[in-house]
UniProtKB/TrEMBL annotation:
Reactions listed under catalytic activity: beta-D-ribosylnicotinate + ATP = nicotinate beta-D-ribonucleotide + ADP + H(+); beta-nicotinamide D-riboside + ATP = beta-nicotinamide D-ribonucleotide + ADP + H(+)
GO biological process, one term: pyridine nucleotide biosynthetic process
Protein name: Nicotinamide riboside kinase 1
Molecular function as annotated in GO: ATP binding; metal ion binding; nicotinate riboside kinase activity; ribosylnicotinamide kinase activity
SUPFAM superfamilies xref list: P-loop containing nucleoside triphosphate hydrolases (SSF52540)
Domain of life of the source: Eukaryota
Organism: Cyclopterus lumpus (Lumpsucker)
GO cellular-component term (any): cytosol
């Protein structure tokens, strides 16, 4: 059994969840872990001097719990799939050559070094400020975004986190989130499949 861990990161509302879910549906024996599932309770998320909740930072997330889930998959992907109600697919290669794929999706996955170190492939979704703001304003969050939250916290923190990421992380494939989602999926799917084939041949 061989494993491959893929990271799909990027700005809020950039299309990373759509891409990750589509990849998961296309790739046999894959599993998806989303960083958004590990936010701490709103009552413990710190507030800045402007009164904005500091959600766009690693301290707002239960990263230890998320890493435990990732480590559980790494120990035995087959058992992990079954635990989630997914049945591993038997493919043509012998069992010891089968490749299990973990797709990790989130806005700060490349900023957490223990997690980033696990990725074989890293993809980052990008969209312009105006598109991001428009998409963000059309979605409903719990709790809802207060007035000025995007410009006062979300976008500045994205730029700060991205600068930190780019200064310490290499090997990222940048994706244009304005491209048709089918085209993005085709490009990333082909790239991941090439890596799967390489692992099978090793």
């Amino acid at each position: 059994m061989k494993t491959l861990v893929v990271g799909v990161g990027g700005v809020t509302n950039g299309g990373k969840s759509t891409l990750s879910n589509s990849l998961h549906q296309q790739i046999p024996n894959s599993c998806l872990i989303a960083q958004d599932a590990y936010f701490k309770d709103d009552s413990v998320v710190p507030v800045d001097s402007n009164g904005f909740k500091q959600y766009d930072m690693l301290d707002a997330l239960h990263m230890d719990t998320m890493m435990s889930e990732v480590d559980s998959w790494r120990r035995d992907p087959e058992v992990f799939l079954r635990r989630r109600g997914l049945n591993p697919e038997r493919t043509t290669p012998p069992k010891d050559e089968e490749v299990y794929v973990l797709i990790v999706e989130g806005f700060l996955i490349f900023n957490h070094r223990p997690l980033n170190d696990l990725f074989y492939k890293r993809y980052l979704m990008e969209i312009p400020y105006d598109v991001c703001k428009r998409r963000r304003s059309s979605r409903v969050y719990t709790p809802p975004d207060p007035p000025g939250y995007f410009d006062g916290h979300v976008w500045p923190m994205y730029l700060k986190n991205r600068q930190e990421m780019e200064s310490s992380v290499s090997g990222i494939v940048f994706l244009d989130g304005l491209k048709p989602k089918e085209e993005l999926l085709a490009d990333v799917y082909e790239d991941v499949c090439q890596e799967i084939e390489r692992l099978m041949c090793d």
